[in-house]
Amino acid sequence: MKIKEFNKDKIFIFDTTLRDGAQSANISFSVQDKLMLIEKFDEIGIDYIEVGFPASNPKDEELFRVLKNKKLKNSKIVAFGRTKYKNTKANQDQNLKTLIASGATVICIFGKSSPLHVTQVIETTLENNIEMIFDSIAFLKNSGFEVIFDAEHFFDGYKLDQAYALKTLKSAEDAGADFIVLCDTNGGCLPGETEEILKVVSKNIYTPLGIHCHNDSGCAVANSIIAVDKFENVKMVQGTINGYGERCGNADLCQVIPNIEIKLGKKCLPKSNLKHLTSLSRYVSEIANQASPNNQPFVGRNAFTHKAGMHVHGVSKLTEAFEHIKPELVGNTRDILISELSGKKSIILKAKEFGVNLENDLASVSKILNIIQDLEHKGYQFEAADGTFELIVKDTIGVKQNYFTLESFRVLNEKTSSGMISEATVKIYVKNNRIIETAEGDGPVHALDCAIRKALKNFYPDLEKIKLTDFKVRVLDEKQGTAAIVRVLIESTDGEKNWGTIGVSENIIEASWQALQDSIIYGLMHIKNNKNI
Fold first, then answer.
1. What is the pTM of this model?
2. Cα(380)–Cα(339) distance, rounded to whole angstroms?
3. 404-459 carries CATH number 3.90.930
């Protein structure tokens, strides 16, 4: 397979989330997890999906058994393994036999390109390592497979012994490898080094090249992009979704793919599929049970979020003035945050998101801005508390609905032989009715939530649709010890819409009540077709 056989603008994406990504310290995929992710990768159009090492563990053995009967539309399933064992014939090597029997149509094998690893890690001679590479690839090619050779530790090996590192690549080429992938396995290469080394490789190797970078120097994406941008014979990029991987991770394909497609004008995914990238990133995070970094380029929740007033004002006039691409290209959205840095334009744009037009009400805008700045000075933050912000706006312009009025609440905590029990009592007024209700809960906030729901359920039965999904507490001034101010953030949902509310106080129960009360009021205001409201 030579370069001329490829579309010159096509870059093949090789995803190793399920193998290299699974080596992250806090990630473990079940067989079902991997199957769900394979379906998503196939849907978006990833070219190669490296699913694991069939000889390494029972879980991967089961996965390959299932995949034998699975048809994919866009992707090729890749089995991963090593070259033959030293001093063993390729046709007798159990590892290679397992790869052949795996059911995968593509096999990726790694071999050593660093003399340090050859002599001191696998403990063989430099000549025998060359033979191991050649014989393994030739055997797999003669068995009818597409073969990708990962030149492990290539860049470090090149710095130690340029001639030998190139010799390992030449051996893979002579054996018929379809791609030769240069691996910065330790992640120590800088972009300038990567470019200089690739200049030499490109003049000596004619097989299509790939790049596989780890992120230990924070350069994995940059190295991958330089390889594709500067060298026509680099046709493959290996990486993981969200940059998962051992130590500091691999090149993040959620950054690599849009940079290649949007900035370099080359193609990675089928037409129109780039817009699904943000959704894919968050789906993988969910399956991996990892929090998505808000500041992740392209797909992070803050990637197109604007907070400073001057920036927001500029974005309202010309989005490209403060955004390097349109967020919808990668399936993301623009967001305007409200904070003490906000200007009047931020307030107007944010209010417009929930149907309030303040363009001609500058007096209210100024009042809202003063309220926000004063509250943030006290410890409030509204970036994740959109529900509370909306209530402030609607209260200021006189359209906020008050479904109940608090008279008082009380919370008791009791230690029993079976554990802790919290009991809350609330006294409220609803439609001129004084209601008193008591409830127990697993903690004081849970007990308060249960008590207020009991008090309101006969008046607002749709309240049962509102569920609390997260509860976060942040101590704002740790030096004050138990007298410190705390900030409570509650996240809620009605099954269709999610929102955040906030409370701040020296008393954690009071702060929790503030956030809880706002959560309920906001939810009731947005529940559709609530005939009791």
1. 0.70
2. 9
3. no
